[in-house]
User: Fold these one by one.
Assistant:
Number 1:
Amino acid sequence: MDEKLFAAIESLHAPSDWVHLATVLKDGSPHVTPMMMGVDAPYLLFSLTGKQKVRNLERDPRACVAISKPTVMAHVIVWGQIEIRTDDEAQKMWEGMIVRAFGDAGLGQRSRTLSRDGTMLGVFTPERHRIYGIES
């Protein structure tokens, strides 16, 4: 991940903050959902539990995430592709994301095994980005 992008995300985003993730619906229109996001450079991570977003990503892996803070105009927009994963490495990445956001106790409350029928990990690979209002 680009160093400026990583620094900009870190300046705006805490592990338990919400972002807006957009995927592409079958008709080509956007499907935008508020979600929690983890960072495991060079990737952005999303816990995927909804059926619509997963269907969208299986058909078209392109996505866009908007990262901002309330009452601040500074923001980061990142475009890229999301790979849906449930493998052992993805499980470790998902657990790390949950621990960073909620601590070890939080993982205990949210513990689950990734599966195609339940929670999956969306591994977002940034391809381009826009940083607005953040000093570099």
Note: The domain at 3-84+123-132 is CATH 2.30.110.10 (Pnp Oxidase; Chain A).
Number 2:
Amino acid sequence: MRFAGIEIGEVNRATEVRCCASGKVLNVAVALGTLGGVSRAVTVMGGAAAGWAAAEFRGLGIDLVAVPTIADTRCCTTLLDEATGRTTELVENAPPITPDELARFVAAYEGAVAVAAAVVLSGSLPAGTPTTIYRDLLERTPCPAIVDARGPELLAALPCRPLLVKPNREELARTVGRPLGAEADLRGAMEEIRAQGAEWVLVTDGAKPALALGPAGWFRIAPPRLDRVVNPIGCGDCLAAGFAEATSRGLEPLDAIRFGVACAAFNCGTLLAGRLERAAVETLVSDVRIEPA
């Protein structure tokens, strides 16, 4: 919902309202599809949202494997205040899934990942899902993996040696259980995550430069300068999608990070998350600055 301005406690009339299939897994799949690649989203969905999300994915030409659930899929709302540039999210908690639904999801994942060139594991877990679920999925994964998660589920996945983990700074602080105010604190936490198994650790911090740690050492990644930010929701998902797409083309991790950051930058200027334009993204790649740090 877009507003000229939002006044708390008053009636606010939106200037524009758009509905779309979204959420971290779906954003990644849409970004990959709009980049021109072949993508398949595997998730759980139920209720009316499952029907219209499937219809939207068919229109986009993207494969959606949605394991049916008894519970209705949640609906979340983003409020864009053009007067202040602030973005507010109204987020429903994800409903729990049953053990049978989880087992059918794992089976669907196994079928999809068997033919994948890269995989992105992304998002928070529904209530009742074991914190080992990402580890369990990675044990079934024969291709390079990107994990965009936080907390116990991220820590449990690290021994499976994912190619890239990409929490933001706040998520990493919650994962290691302490504040990361100074850069030395941030670097220490990233070293811990890499020591536990991740090949590359990439930590984003909003519009500020990201910090990466990998076999070649430390790097600072500055995104392109943007004239205008429309909606920052989904930028991390687009980064993960861009990294996965570039990895599937054989690019080295730093070049894949560069392409992913360009995808995230383009997403900032769009209203709906993940709806990328490859030609426009390619023009931003050279503006992503990567320097040893």
Note: The domain at 2-292 is CATH 3.40.1190.20 (UDP-N-acetylmuramoyl-L-alanine:D-glutamate ligase).
